Amino acid sequence: MTRLVVVGASLAGLRAVEAARRTGFEGEIVLVGREPALPYDRPPLSKRYLVGEAEVDFYKTEEEIRDGLGVDLRLGVAATGLRPGDHVLETDAGELAYDRLILATGASPRMLPGVPDLDGIVTLRNLEDSDDLRRRIRPGSHVIVLGAGFIGSEIASTARKLGAHATVVEGAPVPLVRAVGDVVGAALAELHPRAGTPLRLSTTISAFHGIDGRLASVELSTGETIPADVVVIGIGASPATSWLDGSGIVLDERDGGVRCDATLRTSLPDVWAAGDIVHWPNAVYGRTMRLENWTNASDQGMRAGANAADPDRALPFETVPYFWSDWYERRIQFVGIAAGEVEYVSGAPGDDRFVAVFIDDDRVVGAATLDEPRKIMKLRGLISRRAGRAAVLDLVQPQLVTKE
């Protein structure tokens, strides 16, 4: 009987398992996950769960995974190595043979070098991290968020909601440039001061100061020293692939992500990958991408699972990226890529709502919206159809047009 092993029991891994069964795979499936918890929804960890407005949202019960999907579920088990010549996955619980393998190990938070061992310096990636941060953020506490990306901004927003004093420190002059471009990035950055949250751009933390082993304050590169009960380091994440060193799988030289073909197959014929770790050629844009968002993990997991279940009928994975974020009761949504010129086809950067589109050679390749949830999926459809600027103007009545 063919055995499919999926490494990573989060969204991408679970979707791969579900898709393999839907495709008709009747062999054995083993799902291995480092965390002891069942697969759960991660976006609320920096928002509604962190603020105490929601409980953990597990995607499926253990019974549904084990009995409903016929999966050998092994939680609390970390992958430690791969011997493709033997078709063996090495784990901290022993060796596991496979016939086909899907890698979905996600990403790990980046840390600053030289950070002192002080209680109060944390990262946020998993449920345990969120529980820890939830205990630390109290009314009146001083929370410093290093990194004005989406996760960091969500944490700052949540801290303010909990009655804490939050300050966001960002090393770049404009945050989120890689994700949404400099024009939209600057507009989103203004949401912090508009909500009363200090934002220090082009600034880093030069020193951490503690008392009796606990964080007490931080010194900024500007020379300013501010009190700090908690510092959340949110400077991005790196593909969790160090355990693949020496396996023969080709990794990207820039970040260690797994390089795949259009069908999400790795450099090894019996191994596929999905989620945050994957670099693959996206035919919608004719370029290689690596995406870190919920939608991609879900969709890519399904395609990898189907392709691994039936390799002879493997299909390429093509997508118009989509992600969202919530700050200060505001909904930010983005589709596509941030390339070309920016036009605000509805609203303006300082408005309470806006629609900005990215146009490259008259083709709409991306769109960013603030509190315009009904328009975003229509924009995604236009982008997938390779629509031009005129189609967007027909969809969104222009109020103000400004160019980058």
TrEMBL record:
**Cellular component terms per the entry's GO annotation:** cytoplasm
Mind listing the UniProt keywords for this protein, alphabetically?
A: FAD, Flavoprotein, Oxidoreductase
Q: Domain FAD/NAD(P)-binding spans what residues?
A: 3-301
Gene Ontology molecular function, alphabetical: oxidoreductase activity, acting on NAD(P)H
Q: What is the designated name of this protein?
A: Pyridine nucleotide-disulfide oxidoreductase
Q: Which Gene3D superfamilies match?
A: 3.30.390.30, FAD/NAD(P)-binding domain
Q: Which domain of life is it from?
A: Bacteria
Where does the Reductase C-terminal domain start and stop, copy by copy? 322-387
Enumerate the cofactors the protein uses.
FAD
Question: InterPro entries in the record, alphabetically?
Answer: FAD-oxidoreductase/Apoptosis, FAD/NAD-bd_sf, FAD/NAD-binding_dom, FAD/NAD-linked_Rdtase_dimer_sf, Reductase_C
